[in-house]
Amino acid sequence: MRVDRRRFVAGLAALTAVPAWARGPAHYPKPDREAMVPVEGGRIYVRVNGDLRGPKPPVVFLHGGPGGTHGAYLDALALADERAVILYDQLDSGRSDRPDDPKNWRVARFVDEVDAVARALGVARWHVVGHSWGGTIALEYGARRPKVMASLILASPLISTRSWIADADALRRELPADVQKELVRCDSLPAPQPVSCDTATTVFYAAYNGREPASEGHKAYRSLSGRGFNPRIYQAMWGQSEFVSTGSLKDYDGEPLLAKLDGRRTLFVGGQYDEARPGTLAGFAARVPGAEWAVVPGAAHGIFTDRPDESVALLRGWMQRHDL
């Protein structure tokens, strides 16, 4: 039975009563399987929890950045009680190889990594979750490989640079006047920027990027996970600020790809206070016939770290409806 968008979103309201102290476990399970998978330019780190040969299609998470790591999606490991959960670090990020060669920092090559993971693990069909910049990769992959996906979840995705910057500008105008002024001033300054720019950016991030501090479990995992975020990729592909893109993604426009998605199996999801504003995501969903969209109450851009229980429950229900 289909669940219409209004009912789907409204059903999340019952999940908002989770106390802050219950956010995530103190420790996360070790992977059941690890691998260094060859891709163009090097090898990428992949971890799996759960049974890849189980009755339900596995789910793979594509992390944000560019330059982020799989560590932001540790709470999704709770889904391994019914399906395999695959997390990986893109090349030059986290535990993956770091050739630090800008020739590798191309959208198409990052999309090819997804195919490489599927081949290495022997996965013929899966759910694909792309968050933020990972949503860009997932969008491209969804347009390229619709038949291998049980479903596509675009979480707080970067669909086009112009829409992202428009959202960032709109949200910046909601900040205190002195913070707005400093952020605008900083846009014209070269790197390295003064401390005042970092302070103003922190205000923006606290409102729209992550509203909750890292849990103890996330802190413990990061302390053991080796190299983390790679700012070189972020700066080369995006730039130094959320409000001005100067890198290779400055003209990125994935909006034409929306028409190539299978709307019956596509979900857009974001946080109530997300950098990718709910209204923008709703507009994208409306352009994909049959697609659904949902808002995670209380969350900013980091929906999986701000509201892990709610986000995992949302994905669990969605994937169960689209396993067949």
Summarize the structure.
This protein is of the alpha/beta class and 324 residues long. It has one domain (5-321): Alpha/Beta hydrolase fold, catalytic domain (Rossmann fold). It has eleven helices and eight strands.
Helices, by number, come to 11
CATH class: Alpha Beta
Profile the largest sheet.
8 strands, mixed
Number of strands: 8
- The parts where pLDDT drops under 50 for at least 5 residues are 1-22
CATH topology: Rossmann fold
Helix and strand string, N-terminal first?
A: HEEEEHEHEHHHHHEHEHH
Task: Write down the overall mean pLDDT.
Answer: 91
Task: Explain how this protein is built.
This protein has 324 residues and is α/β, with parallel strands linked by helices. The protein is built from 11 helices and 8 strands. Helix 2 packs across helix 3 and helix 5 packs across helix 6. The N terminus is likely disordered.
